[in-house]
Amino acid sequence: MISDATGETLIAAGRAVAAQYAHARAIEHVYPLVRTEKQIKKVLEGIDAEPGIVLYTIIDQRLAAIIDDNCAAIGVPCVSVLEPVVTLFQSYLGAPAGRRVGAQHVLNAEYFKRIDALNFTMEHDDGQLPPDIEEADVVLIGISRTSKTPTSIYLANRGIKTVNVPIVIGVPIPEVLVNCQRPLIVGLVASAERISQVRQHRVLGAALSFDADHYLDRANIIEELTYARQICHRHNWPMIDVSRRSIEETAAAVLALRSQGR
To answer: Could you report the per-residue pLDDT of 168-208, keeping only the tens digit for each?
Structure first.
């Protein structure tokens, strides 16, 4: 995978396709920030030594042609991941692309919005609820091990200011949360089996004083989940079952709720 920028787009595309081939194990060779012929030469030497499918996102057409020609000579398949999309845009808009390297990483307002959202989210992790809760876009609530923090961070990287609040039996929901008007409040739930499995991993690294038996007990987990659902029903807060969802899928479901005005 060869990129003239960070390679994030390329890696995401490559892994999305590789995931469709469960019987095969993909070994990734990633070459980011490749912008000169000298760099291309070193990359091609690496491909010749360990050949495989070549994916690239190189905006400079001259450098892209070097990759194409050398891969053909070596006898390995290669494809420009962005070029078909660029061609489609050019055809529809009737104008050539600017072909600026790393254009999606420009330090514009959207970039700083994401950084601001990430800072806000980290400051409001795990129940930290200062008076500025109304500044949040989303509040995620749920019992332990329902992926609140990783989902919050993923949303923050999309520019969504996110707060997450743990639900604990016997501990009332903070009044400031019940009274807030602006944020979308979403409950994250899962099956007792899934929660128990995830908690097993946490227990392995916990301190000796940790009450593992109570934490892993299925009956206790079911009681916690019931309590969480009752809270959401009482306040008419939507819930998302994360049992079989990845972090990305959970975040997508939250964004869908936002778009629906929930």
So the answer is: 998 888 888 999 999 999 999 999 999 999 998 777 655 54
Phi and psi at residue 56, to the nearest 5°:
-145, 155
Between CA 233 and CA 231 the distance in angstroms is: 6
Percent helix, strand and coil across the chain, each rounded to 5? 50, 10, 35
- DSSP symbols for 240-256: EE-TT--HHHHHHHHHH
- The residues pairing with 55 across neighbouring beta strands, listed in sequence order, are 79
Instruction: For residue range 138-163, list pLDDT tens digits in order.
Output: 999 999 999 999 999 999 999 999 99
Structure tokens at 261: 């005005």
DSSP string covering 183-204, please? SEEEEEE--HHHHHHHHHHHHH
Closest CA to 18 of 10, 215, 57, 159: 10
